[in-house]
Write a structure and sequence with these properties.
Structural class: alpha/beta
Radius of gyration: 21 Å
Largest sheet: 8 strands, mixed
Distance between the termini: 17 Å
Shape: globular
Number of helices: 12
Length: 472
């Protein structure tokens, strides 16, 4: 397997090459035992990028199809005739495409993976001058653009030094809201009875509570639609006395209730359940008195620097740093790098696993048809990176994964393998399956070597110089 070799003296600075030579071979640590060397899991969730969009030319990965220096895919362009091939897009502000469930179905097109340009042309795309007065990107077909080390050098550096997952799929074929619900509960549903977990049925378009009223209005919106009655992972964490926090960058969200590419931004507040911050709306979070565990992002920095990171952390961005169009790619990379640098500069780095992901494809092209595991998903392929002192170095994980694997890892590391299973978790709901146990889902243990010496941190400049161009 090839590895990306940009600036080896810089990128690999501070990375330990291994422990001292020993005269005898130590007994290998089984992964299921070694997992307990991880005392902190931090899930950093960014927004709306496909795998091919960010890592389509990463050496050794299942990237953009090409042969003889030419791309072999060309996606039909209904508006202009012909088709559009992938191209390098150095634009910092992208448009993407609409990304609801109907758009996912059209993009996938029964496995042909050829609907992306047509969906971008039909839906809202690019930036909207009435929303963004600095709007300059009107390219309808930038869903076919790709980035490389010139544009996202730190993300490529993390991939080169740690683990890149090239078959990570979003857990359901829809937009941000259901993705964030799956991230903390392994389900997205609509419930006919408020606070009634047995009244819920799968819904990846407009999840929540179908009742009107009952929860009051917050910021002028009826919060009944933000009531989630089914069981979240925090219920099991609380039950097992495992610490957790959900850190939110307050500001504005960029995603829309209809899964379109852009919409007027809305305020994101810690105590208000919303698209990227769903936990305050969960019945079990409120019943367990855990709403206070949803905190502003400054608490993350303070907790990390004080050595008080909880066992499980989720970090949600605001629109400006989310990479969700029209947010700047560079702003998102700088924000993520700062989060990771903060952890790496603390003693807790030595026992931490960071899972860096992007919640959905955002309308951007990807050539791999997702596997079907149930009526909701999987959705399209997204980037995934594992960063840890125990992560394999320069490893590409080809397993079929979804972000369900994050939940599975947390359950195995801290809950003795307990699952969000209505038959066993003590709080039954009407979910149709136990996602963590799906035989299609790989295991993140494959991304770790618990026998290696913990590697030194790789602290990066949040505003790096561009890396080299990739070869097609």
């Amino acid at each position: 397997m090839k590895r990306w070799a940009l600036g080896v003296a810089v990128v690999f600075a501070g990375v330990a090459c291994g422990g001292p030579t020993q005269s005898s071979t130590p007994t290998p640590t089984p992964p299921e035992v070694g997992i307990h060397k991880i005392q902190h899991v931090v899930v950093i969730m960014q927004e709306n990028r496909s795998f091919d969009h960010y890592f389509g030319l990463y050496p050794g990965a299942d990237g953009l199809p090409r042969q003889g220096g030419q791309f072999t895919v060309c996606v039909p362009d209904p508006d202009n005739g012909g088709c559009v091939r992938p191209y390098h897009d150095a634009t910092d502000k992208n448009g993407g495409g609409p990304h609801g469930s109907s758009n996912a179905s059209a993009d996938i097109n029964s496995g042909k993976m050829d609907g992306f340009v047509g969906q971008a042309e039909k839906g809202k795309r690019g930036c909207v001058a009435t929303v963004d007065p600095n709007c300059t990107n009107s390219v309808k077909t930038d869903v076919m653009g790709y980035k490389d080390a010139r544009d996202i050098p730190n993300y490529w550096a993390y991939a080169s030094n740690y683990v890149l997952q090239d078959h990570m799929f979003q857990p359901n074929a829809s937009w941000s809201f259901p993705q964030h619900l799956y991230l903390v509960s392994e389900w997205s549903a609509k419930c006919s009875g408020q606070d009634d977990p047995m009244s819920c049925t799968t819904n990846i378009d407009a999840p929540g509570n179908s009742l009107v009223g009952g929860a009051g209005k917050i910021n002028g919106e009826d919060q009944a639609a933000r009531n989630f009655a089914w069981t979240s992972l925090t219920y099991l964490l609380y039950k097992h006395q495992v610490s957790w926090r959900y850190y939110v960058a307050e500001g504005q969200t960029a995603d829309c209730e209809d899964g379109a590419a852009v919409c007027p931004p809305k305020d994101q507040k810690v105590g208000t359940p919303d698209i990227w911050n769903p936990l305050p709306g969960f019945t079990d979070v409120r019943t367990d008195g855990q709403v206070g565990n949803v905190q502003t992002i400054d608490h993350f920095y303070a907790d990390a620097k004080a050595g008080h990171l909880p066992a499980v952390s989720w970090i949600a961005p605001n629109g400006a740093v989310s990479e969700h169009p029209p947010g700047l790619v560079s702003a998102g990379q700088a924000y993520v790098t700062t989060l990771i640098d903060t952890i790496m500069r603390t003693p807790e780095w030595s026992s931490t696993a960071i899972f860096l992901g992007w919640d959905d494809w955002g309308g951007f092209y990807d050539h791999v048809a997702p596997p079907v595991v149930d009526g909701a998903g999987y959705g399209l392929r997204v980037p995934g990176i594992v960063i840890s002192p125990y992560a394999r170095q320069g490893y590409i994980d080809h397993q079929i994964l979804s972000q369900d694997a994050y939940v599975k890892f947390i359950e195995d590391a801290f809950l003795g393998g307990a699952r969000l299973d209505p038959k066993t978790d003590g709080r039954p709901d009407s979910r149709p399956d136990v996602r963590e146990n799906n035989p299609t889902l790989g295991n993140l243990l494959s991304d770790f070597d618990f026998n290696q010496q913990p590697r030194a941190p790789l602290v990066l400049d949040p505003n790096p110089s561009p890396g080299p161009a990739s070869s097609i």
